[in-house]
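Teaching note: in complex prediction, the entire set of molecules is handled at once rather than each chain in isolation. The prompt given to students was simply: 'Predict the structure of this complex.' The entities are:
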Amino acid sequence: MTTETSSPVISVRELWKVFGQKAEQVPRSPDLCALSRRELIEQTGCTAAVREVSFDVAPGEVFVVMGLSGSGKSTLVRCLTRLVEPTTGEVVFEGEDILGADKKRLRDLRRRKFSMVFQHFGLLPYRQVVDNVAYGLEIRGTGRAERTRRAMEVIELVGLDGYEHSYPDQLSGGMQQRVGLARALAGDPDVLFFDEPFSALDPLIRRDMQNEVIRLHHEVGKTMVFITHDLSEALKLGDRILIMRDGKMIQCGTGADLVGAPADDYVRDFVRDVARSHVLTLRWIMRDQRADDELDGPELGPDVIVRDAVRAVLSSDRPVKVVKDGELLGVVGNEEILAVVAGVEAGV
Amino acid sequence: MATTTTTTAVAAPRTPLLRRLGRPAQVAAVLVAWVVVWFPTHGTATLSLAPADLTPLHRWLNHVNDTVGANRNTSPIFLYFFNEIRAVIDGLVTFIQALISQEWFGRPVPLLGWLGVVAVVTYVSWVFGNWRVALLAAGGFVFFGLQGLWQESMDTFALTIAAVLISLLFGIPLGIWAGLSDRFNRLVTPVLDFMQTMPTFVYLAPLTLLFLIGPASAVIATLIYAMPPAIRLTAHGIRSVPPAAIEATDSLGATGWQRLTRVLLPLSRRTIVLGINQTIMAALSMVTIAALIDAPGLGQTVVQALQTLDVGTAFNAGLAIVVMAIVLDRVTTAASDRVRVAAPARRLRRLLVAGGGIAAVVCCYFSYTYVWAAEFPDGLDVGSALRRGADSVTTWAQNDLSGATAAFKNLVTSVLLNPLQALLVESPWWLVGAVAVGLAVLLGGVRAAVTTAICLGLIIGTGLWQDSMTTLAMTIVATVMVMVLGVVFGVWMGRNRHADRIIRPILDAGQTMPAFVYLVPFLALFAASRFTAIVAAVVFAAPVAIKIISDGVRGISATTVEAATAAGSSTWQMITKVQLPMSRQSLTLAANQGLIYVLSMVVVGGLVGAGALGYDVVAGFSQGSLYGKGLAAGVAIVLLGIMLDRIARAAQQSNKSKGH
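The expected output is the structure of the full assembly:
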């Protein structure tokens, strides 16, 4: 999905969000920047929620920000639409620095370019589903007939047809979040932000909703920024994942990057229980070709996930060649596959 | 905690005996000392003042009143400020009265006759509430006509509407502001506290000075009393809108106005309507009380009947007030929890709303055109039957029940009231002052003592020391009775859900009733006396105290109660060793609130033989020569209130800091 050639939709540069009396001083002073979060609170009374975070989001990408509670991920996503005002840094959206936008421009961006899905839904209890979904259109001044038509479209898209005249409190949590999703989609935004949208749902419903997001992503192809504290959710949905801890960015890469090459012990600890064969690709487990290898076995690409290559490798009596654009990158034999499937970790 | 214990333990041997006894014993010691000193000194330096006598201060206030009266139409501040306000409010009241109760300009009857009013009230109740409250409203309003009190009821209703309209016109925007701005909220909260804790009768007198006696003053007094709930609950509603909904609407690019009108107001609608409900109830209660400053309506009927001890008439009018209170309360409550209507039923409802509207308009037209629909027919008279019934019950009660009631009345009067009053009234002023300051130090600390000393000094300054002491004695007796009722019923309700479910609605009903109405049945039972006034005050104040205490008892954590049960406590031990000590906070709060409520009934008590400050205030309204004295008496009531409130609050604080 990642298209590295096109320019990013969102480009975040050295973004800081500090809460407190003397917030602006913190990012400017190298001494204060060097302090840990706790030391900063003790010395200045300020809390640094987001510290010097930079990343790009490519068009059509699902970009996941992951961290435990208090890691600053929810603040980060709110900074991107200025629901929380960032302290310093740059948020460039389609070539425009959002932090420089005046109130009117910002409102316009929120009405047409971004929308957000919230953990606690934020639905209006006195409005029927259809009016909740049409709410964003109503705010930007769309006529009643037009917005109802559009609302019915997205209600169908998220699978809520038949419930348009219900009230939110008559729906289950999962269905309420579908309403939230429909509301976000109704305005046809360029980017969808998700703030832990499924944390308040039961595990089974959560899985349904994750699949729903994947399906919608295939159908409408929007750029998505997704916040979660759940690693399996991040791996399932994310093209790329940014891991945050104490407001700082620890690592940013694909799921395989995180599992295959954790940046530090924190990430390593995090990904310890992940089924590696479900995440790693052949690129991560192939070895260099040896003299005694017979090279007339089957060929596979380097981005094939291990799980999907198991049968091919084990059923062949020769090592599988990993080939990209006609060039031999390496080989994978029974030994390598079994090491991953059996959960033997290199270097642990 | 540990440090305090050590210091007292170390300091103990050096402190005098009294210190080591603990607070209850210290208080008892002060009281015993009082009685001991009372015997040789009583009857001296009591600062007494005969009912018709005036002090220079009272004469000066009379003079101020006269000067204001003489300059009312020349002084610029009156010409361009107070008189303007009065003219606008008078205009509004006159207009509404002409609409429903008094002659419409050029017509001998109001624009809307009884049929029109009943139709409109029913229709509005149905549209905003449901058909059940609409029936109740229709029945209630027809009942006023049957009682022979149509015009009086409509006058009260008109004044209430005027006061409520103005209250909401200012109250809701102010509430929204307080809901949105922390700074404004901090600014306005203490003002609202003050407006609500001040006994209501007290500002009647100063208001008449500025706005004359009549509807304008009545409406303004009502505003002061009725606006705080509207402001408070609107602000509270806006503040408790879930942040998720606000954030979601912001993320969609809503403007501030859109956020207010589409999220904040709709989501706080229920709370705001609750505020409107409380404003209406407070307004009705105050409008009837404002009869004391010549506001027209049912209140005046009650006041005149009380002054002539005509229980039948007072009962009839009081019943009308109660009915109006019930109707207004039920209708607004129904409006606040309106259930939403499903889509197909909505179309039908729209038709019905339109049809009902047309029917109401037709009724209005009839009531405008035909005499039978304009003036309530005389033929059906329930009022005189009610009056006779109440009179005969009174006669029966006074003749046949007098054994029991008189025994109770005499018991309380001779055991509690008379000794206390003798102690307070006959003590020299310096003795009472010393005792009060001493108790304030013991119970509340130095600051409370300073406030007490200042208040007592000012009371002496009003020239009404002896009357104040009489009122204080009655207030203390009433508060003690309130607390006894509060503990008994509060603990019962706190421990027993069934009891709570039965008693709470009765208390709620009691609280929605205007203060006046309480007097009527007790006047029938006990005739005019100090005791009647005390009982009315107790009945008025007890519901608050009971509710606070029962909430306190209920609020004790279940684990604590379970642990005490597991340790084998008996019911009595549970109450005395766990539930009462742990709800100490609630007990002091209940005492404080009970006290304020009792004090606010002092003036009403003045109507039924309570004498003292209450009588001074009432007499001040009706006799020009006593105006200054009445004003001073009002101030004295406030001073008593501030003094008792400060001591109680300080006592509460020092309890808290001791870790209870």
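Point out the following to students. Chain A touches chain B at residues 81, 83, 106-112, 114-116, 118-126, 135-136, 138-140, 165, 167, 180, 183, 187, 193 (CB under 8 Å). The first helix of chain A runs from residue 25 to 28.
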